[in-house]
Amino acid sequence: MNNKYAVVTGASSGLGLEFAKLLAKKGYNLVLVARRTERLDALKQDILKAYPLDIHVVPLDLSDGNASQKLLDYTQQNKLAVSVLINNAGFGTSGDFLSLPLEKTVEMLQLNITTLTQLTYLFGNEMKKNKEGYILQVSSVGAFQPAPSFAAYSATKSYVMLFGEALDFELKGTGVSVTTLYPGATKTEFFEASNTKVNKNVERMLMTAEEVADMGLTAMFNRKRSIVPGFTNKLSTLLVQLLPRKLSTYIAANVMK
Ligand SMILES: NC(=O)c1ccc[n+]([C@@H]2O[C@H](COP(=O)([O-])OP(=O)(O)OC[C@H]3O[C@@H](n4cnc5c(N)ncnc54)[C@H](OP(=O)(O)O)[C@@H]3O)[C@@H](O)[C@H]2O)c1
Questions:
Q1: C-alpha 92 – ligand 1 centre gap (Å)
Q2: Structural domain tally of the chain?
């Protein structure tokens, strides 16, 4: 068995589950993290049927401020050489910001921003010491413009965009790269988790989680700074950057209606 380990956060469903399967196919041992342990155990058994890998299930609530340190401690105590970090766990709150429970928004900020930053710091430093590492940050096409109804969520993804791309620049020459992935609407449990009804506009644009994860990993292993999967998503993010922000906000509000 090789000694290459990949940490995948949010591996119990959607993109995370697909990242885990694809990394297993590439021969990576895995550290699977999320809250739903039964889902992670089922994924582990599934992968083990096909590949003889070392797979660790680490049930953690990553919106807990100590979770990142606990995860690093777990990998160090078990002597797992982590060279891939997939910062994927995340969720969105949808609706009018002022009518959403504030605790839910704060939990989202902790998970989508603070934990992602802490994990990048802790595992990034280990990778830098070993002069080898790949980090994938999962942002969203929502990062490129204000998104009414997803105001705070899309802002968390703008943070991921600016943080990830700047960090990749900083890390040049260290052997560690940071790739930021910008999925558009993708068929996962995301919409259910954020209490959003998928309308016809969004349904038409849905990509599969496997396609998006595959494009994300390919870009990451090629050490690309960013990747927007799918032609429609690429085109829309390019156009949005050319429009006055007032207009892109208006369009985003209407796409989500
Ligand atoms: N689907 C889309 O259209 C879309 C578009 C753009 C960006 N994204 C981004 O893609 C990423 C993956 O989402 P997805 O689409 O695959 O949705 P998903 O199917 O709902 O998966 C979300 C994953 O995050 C985990 N998670 C949520 N809260 C957590 C917590 N407190 N602690 C630990 N793990 C937690 C969930 O696991 P547990 O519930 O088991 O903890 C689950 O594995 C997210 O960052 C999302 O913002 C999705």
A1: 8
A2: 1
Helix (H) or strand (E) holding 83: strand 82-87
With the C-alpha atoms ordered 145, 147, 152, 156, is the resulting torsion angle positive or negative?
negative
- For residue 111, the ligand 1 atom closest to its alpha carbon is 31
Residue type at position 133: G
Probe ligand 1: pick from 188, 201, 226, max atoms within 8 Å of CB? 188
Residue 212: predicted pLDDT: 98
What does the pLDDT look like over 28-68, one tens digit per residue? 999 999 999 999 999 999 999 999 999 999 999 999 999 99
CB atoms within 10 A of CB 142: 24
Residue 174 structural domain: 5-256
Whether residue 71 contacts residue 6, with contact meaning beta carbons closer than 8 Å, is answered with: no
Name the pTM for this structure.
Answer: 0.97
